[in-house]
Specification:
mainly alpha; 6 helices
Length: about 160
Protein backbone atom coordinates (compact mmCIF):
# COMPACT_ATOMS: atom_id res chain seq x y z
CA UNK A 1 0.00 0.00 0.00
CA UNK A 2 1.42 3.24 -1.07
CA UNK A 3 1.46 6.08 1.51
CA UNK A 4 0.32 3.95 4.45
CA UNK A 5 2.43 3.83 7.53
CA UNK A 6 2.56 1.03 10.00
CA UNK A 7 1.86 2.00 13.57
CA UNK A 8 4.05 0.22 16.08
CA UNK A 9 2.17 -1.81 18.67
CA UNK A 10 1.26 0.18 21.75
CA UNK A 11 2.92 -0.60 25.06
CA UNK A 12 2.55 0.50 28.66
CA UNK A 13 0.03 3.23 29.48
CA UNK A 14 -0.75 3.78 25.81
CA UNK A 15 -1.78 0.12 25.40
CA UNK A 16 -3.90 0.10 28.55
CA UNK A 17 -5.57 3.41 27.61
CA UNK A 18 -6.39 2.07 24.14
CA UNK A 19 -7.88 -1.09 25.65
CA UNK A 20 -9.99 0.92 28.15
CA UNK A 21 -11.20 3.25 25.39
CA UNK A 22 -12.35 0.32 23.22
CA UNK A 23 -14.90 -0.90 25.79
CA UNK A 24 -18.30 0.41 24.56
CA UNK A 25 -19.95 -0.17 27.97
CA UNK A 26 -17.17 1.62 29.89
CA UNK A 27 -16.92 -1.36 32.25
CA UNK A 28 -13.14 -1.10 32.14
CA UNK A 29 -13.24 2.62 32.94
CA UNK A 30 -12.30 2.15 36.59
CA UNK A 31 -10.00 4.59 38.32
CA UNK A 32 -9.13 5.50 41.89
CA UNK A 33 -10.73 8.61 43.35
CA UNK A 34 -7.95 9.15 45.89
CA UNK A 35 -10.47 10.07 48.59
CA UNK A 36 -7.90 9.85 51.36
CA UNK A 37 -5.56 12.21 49.54
CA UNK A 38 -8.43 14.57 48.69
CA UNK A 39 -9.41 14.67 52.37
CA UNK A 40 -5.81 15.24 53.37
CA UNK A 41 -5.49 18.08 50.87
CA UNK A 42 -8.63 19.71 52.28
CA UNK A 43 -7.25 19.42 55.81
CA UNK A 44 -3.99 21.07 54.76
CA UNK A 45 -5.88 23.86 53.00
CA UNK A 46 -8.04 24.37 56.11
CA UNK A 47 -4.91 24.65 58.24
CA UNK A 48 -3.50 27.28 55.92
CA UNK A 49 -6.77 29.22 55.98
CA UNK A 50 -6.90 29.04 59.77
CA UNK A 51 -3.39 30.51 59.95
CA UNK A 52 -4.42 33.37 57.65
CA UNK A 53 -7.56 33.95 59.72
CA UNK A 54 -5.51 34.04 62.92
CA UNK A 55 -3.06 36.57 61.43
CA UNK A 56 -5.87 38.81 60.16
CA UNK A 57 -7.64 38.66 63.52
CA UNK A 58 -4.40 39.63 65.27
CA UNK A 59 -3.93 42.58 62.91
CA UNK A 60 -7.53 43.67 63.56
CA UNK A 61 -6.99 43.53 67.32
CA UNK A 62 -3.75 45.48 66.96
CA UNK A 63 -5.58 48.17 64.95
CA UNK A 64 -8.28 48.50 67.60
CA UNK A 65 -5.67 48.74 70.36
CA UNK A 66 -3.69 51.31 68.36
CA UNK A 67 -6.83 53.38 67.86
CA UNK A 68 -7.62 53.30 71.57
CA UNK A 69 -4.02 54.12 72.50
CA UNK A 70 -3.92 57.04 70.06
CA UNK A 71 -6.97 58.68 71.62
CA UNK A 72 -9.40 57.47 69.02
CA UNK A 73 -7.17 57.92 65.97
CA UNK A 74 -9.77 57.98 63.17
CA UNK A 75 -7.24 56.96 60.52
CA UNK A 76 -6.46 53.71 62.33
CA UNK A 77 -10.17 53.03 62.83
CA UNK A 78 -10.89 53.62 59.15
CA UNK A 79 -8.09 51.27 58.14
CA UNK A 80 -9.59 48.57 60.33
CA UNK A 81 -13.02 49.11 58.75
CA UNK A 82 -12.46 49.55 55.04
CA UNK A 83 -10.32 47.89 52.43
CA UNK A 84 -10.20 51.04 50.34
CA UNK A 85 -8.69 53.06 53.17
CA UNK A 86 -6.25 50.29 53.97
CA UNK A 87 -5.10 49.98 50.38
CA UNK A 88 -4.60 53.76 50.16
CA UNK A 89 -2.33 53.73 53.20
CA UNK A 90 1.04 54.95 52.06
CA UNK A 91 2.39 55.81 55.47
CA UNK A 92 5.05 53.12 55.27
CA UNK A 93 3.44 50.89 57.91
CA UNK A 94 4.59 47.34 57.56
CA UNK A 95 1.30 46.23 59.05
CA UNK A 96 -0.75 47.50 56.10
CA UNK A 97 1.54 45.81 53.58
CA UNK A 98 1.31 42.61 55.60
CA UNK A 99 -2.51 42.89 55.74
CA UNK A 100 -2.77 43.41 51.97
CA UNK A 101 -0.48 40.43 51.37
CA UNK A 102 -2.59 38.29 53.72
CA UNK A 103 -5.81 39.28 51.97
CA UNK A 104 -4.34 38.44 48.57
CA UNK A 105 -3.17 35.09 49.95
CA UNK A 106 -6.63 34.56 51.48
CA UNK A 107 -8.36 35.13 48.14
CA UNK A 108 -6.13 32.66 46.36
CA UNK A 109 -6.32 30.03 49.11
CA UNK A 110 -10.13 30.33 49.43
CA UNK A 111 -10.52 29.77 45.71
CA UNK A 112 -8.24 26.74 45.87
CA UNK A 113 -10.07 25.39 48.94
CA UNK A 114 -13.56 25.85 47.53
CA UNK A 115 -12.59 24.24 44.24
CA UNK A 116 -11.07 21.25 46.03
CA UNK A 117 -14.06 21.04 48.38
CA UNK A 118 -16.61 21.10 45.56
CA UNK A 119 -14.71 18.48 43.59
CA UNK A 120 -14.40 16.26 46.66
CA UNK A 121 -18.10 16.35 47.58
CA UNK A 122 -19.13 15.99 43.96
CA UNK A 123 -17.75 12.46 44.01
CA UNK A 124 -19.15 11.43 47.38
CA UNK A 125 -22.27 9.28 47.28
CA UNK A 126 -25.00 10.68 49.49
CA UNK A 127 -26.48 7.33 50.46
CA UNK A 128 -28.35 6.72 53.66
CA UNK A 129 -26.60 4.91 56.48
CA UNK A 130 -27.63 1.58 57.91
CA UNK A 131 -29.42 1.20 61.23
CA UNK A 132 -27.65 2.89 64.08
CA UNK A 133 -28.41 4.95 67.11
CA UNK A 134 -30.57 8.03 66.51
CA UNK A 135 -27.87 10.58 67.26
CA UNK A 136 -25.58 9.03 64.67
CA UNK A 137 -28.35 8.94 62.08
CA UNK A 138 -29.31 12.53 62.89
CA UNK A 139 -25.72 13.68 62.43
CA UNK A 140 -25.51 11.72 59.18
CA UNK A 141 -28.69 13.35 57.82
CA UNK A 142 -27.43 16.79 58.83
CA UNK A 143 -24.08 16.19 57.11
CA UNK A 144 -25.77 14.88 53.96
CA UNK A 145 -28.11 17.88 53.83
CA UNK A 146 -25.15 20.22 54.30
CA UNK A 147 -23.24 18.44 51.53
CA UNK A 148 -26.24 18.65 49.20
CA UNK A 149 -26.52 22.37 49.94
CA UNK A 150 -22.80 22.84 49.25
CA UNK A 151 -23.03 20.83 46.02
CA UNK A 152 -25.75 23.17 44.74
CA UNK A 153 -23.30 26.03 45.25
CA UNK A 154 -20.58 24.32 43.19
CA UNK A 155 -20.95 25.68 39.69
CA UNK A 156 -18.83 23.13 37.85
CA UNK A 157 -20.51 19.85 38.80
CA UNK A 158 -20.50 17.13 36.18
CA UNK A 159 -23.56 17.17 33.98
Amino acid sequence: MEGSQTVPPLEGYAAVAAWVALDPDNETFVFRKFDRLAARNLLYLQSELLAIEKDLDRLDRDDVEAAQDAARDLTAKDKARTWAESSRAHDGRETETHRRNLVEKLRSKMKEYRTAFCLAIEHKPLTSRGDGDRRSVGRSVKVRLTLRHQMKRCSFRAK
